[in-house]
Amino acid sequence: MDKIGFSVKNMDRSVDPFGDFYSYSSGSWLKTHDIPKEKTRIGSFDELYEANMLILKDIAEKCANGKPDSHTERLVGDFYSSYMNENLAERLKFKPVMPIMKKIRDMESIEKIPSLLGELARIGVNAFFSSYVTSDIKNSEIYALYTWQGGTSLPDRDYYLNPKFAELRKEYVKHIKSVFTLYGSKPSYAMADAKAVMDIETELAKVQRTNVELRDDRKNYNKMTIKQISSRYKKLGLEEYYKALGAKSISYAIIGQPEFFDKLEKMIPELELNKAKAYLTWLVLHTYSGLLHKAVYNEYFGFFGRKISGQKSPRPRWKRGVSLIDYMIGEALGALYVKQNFDAKTKRKADELVANVRSSFAERIKKIDWMSEQTKKKALDKLASINQKIGYPKKFRDYSKLLLKRDDLVRNFQMAYAFEFDRDISRIGKPVDRNEWGMTPPTVNAYYNPSLNEIVFPAGIFQPPFFDANKDDAVNYACIGGVIGHEMTHGFDDQGSRYDKKGNLKGWWRKTDENKFKSKAEKVARLYGSLEVMPGLKVNGKLTLGENIADLGGINIAFDALKMALKKSGYKEKLIDGFTQEQRFFIAWAQMYKGKARPEESKRLVLIDPHSPEKFRGLIPAITHESFQKEFKELSKKRTIATKHDNVNLW
Ligand SMILES: [Zn+2]
Fold first, then answer.
1. CATH of the domain at 552
2. 161 C-alpha vs ligand 1 centroid, how far in Å?
3. CA of residue 270 to ligand 1 center, whole Å
4. Where does residue 179 rank: exposed (0-12), middle (13-18), buried (19+ CB within 10 A)?
5. How far is the CA of 372 from the CAs of 384, 396, 437, in angstroms?
6. Is 377 found in the same domain as 228?
7. Percent of the chain with pLDDT over 90
8. How many angstroms does the Cα of residue 483 sit away from the middle of ligand 1?
9. 269 inside domain
10. pLDDT given for residue 28 in this prediction
11. Confidence band (pLDDT; 50, 70, 90) for 386?
């Protein structure tokens, strides 16, 4: 593997920076890197992800093969052993899912479905809709239960409804049929059942809100008492379902999309029992496809990997195993990971970077010309209140009550899933634990949580190419500084700005400022909406609005933070690899988003990913930055940049 991280070797200096800054910054890398067969995309996040996977593999193997020193090591070792035991999976075939299949088969009438749905949800199978527990966004101090639209397995409702996916839909029905056939259905039954599944999912897709509509937290917040729920959804039996989840004495729930459940209220009682059973059977087989024998996984991969995403070959089994453990018992694996991979020095440097980026953001807010002093004061107050979490949780999850086996993968999955699920359910109505993390420590990512007003940076991202103690400030401020600025800006994007400093969905803007914000945000949406991903396919400017605002804010804040840091350290201007600090900043920013995706994957991502494609994340914030032209003038033969975009800065 190449050494990952910023390098001028990734550049193509034969390209003019004002002509195509993306190729100028990453052209050599783009020319010399193909997407590996097992992947659907590559880029900076992915390079680090792969490097991390090797570390996690090593940990998992040691736990599995050695004598465990702790309960944590035993859990990781047992889970990994059970996953890697392919021979056992081949011998058992469908046996591990028989108990749950029996329950589906034995369902006497459609009226019995609510409690079965609850039972399935506890082991990771979400039919028709799903439920989860998180802070109540209008009362962020306590946990609430949310019930949300769902029930479909294709990546987005468009795959069911848009004529351009007609071919894939046919393939999907064939795939479902093949899975039923493997499971032992006669071909004619398998086909009828596959069609029944497709009919149900298509009906659900029709009434699902779009991903753009789902970005409106106010519309998705419909608090109802259990009494109200029972009277509005009489036949759906949500109360029964909640009891089966273990939520026996809750007073209210938040229904994400009431009209979706209105539809279910009519649809489910009229479903033929056999069709309902086919649908549930399919969902179990689909959800558990990675846990069963090879034939099932290969069938899954043939459709969801190859056809949907353009992936050429499956990821090696060990990678799938490590990913699953990270997903299921991530704080066990993560506790072992940070022992070797996050030190006090990195933590100190990270704290310093976050503090500098925060003060740079504050300075920018003070200077904004479109916002009243009154709203500015509140914005500054909110910024100062953002809680920061770096590295890993103060206290890791207590898994002492979770017991796994070395030779029962499906059971391990169910036990670990139910462990988390029950833990969540038991906290409904109780105070929110502000020390908890929503990402595991090895994760190469970061997030802003509006309802806790917090930014969170797992240990995983404090490594090259995002953070490198051996690199100059320009590179670190562009990369990890840019990520920090991005996450902070989320508190002030079109969604985050609706939350107050305590994390409640409650307005704090003066009306005139809010209107100005909206019209500026529309400009951002228009600019990105005009960008072409591939011929005939454009970025969805509305879906990606929040992320684009965060990228645009992130680069501004990080650039100012760099200037402040250089000034503070008394930096004497010198060229590194022939570039100034300012130039290296923009090149490193664009390089952070070097990347490629397969065409199938690009189409999928345009529909579901709230981020713009990497190319535009690298390019647009850089070339629209107020200092960009000035910094690259001498390196360009052109007078100005080729494609001029309006300055669309909000922050
Ligand atoms: Zn983001």
1. 3.40.390.10
2. 28
3. 42
4. buried
5. 18, 43, 35
6. no
7. 97
8. 8
9. yes
10. 98
11. very high
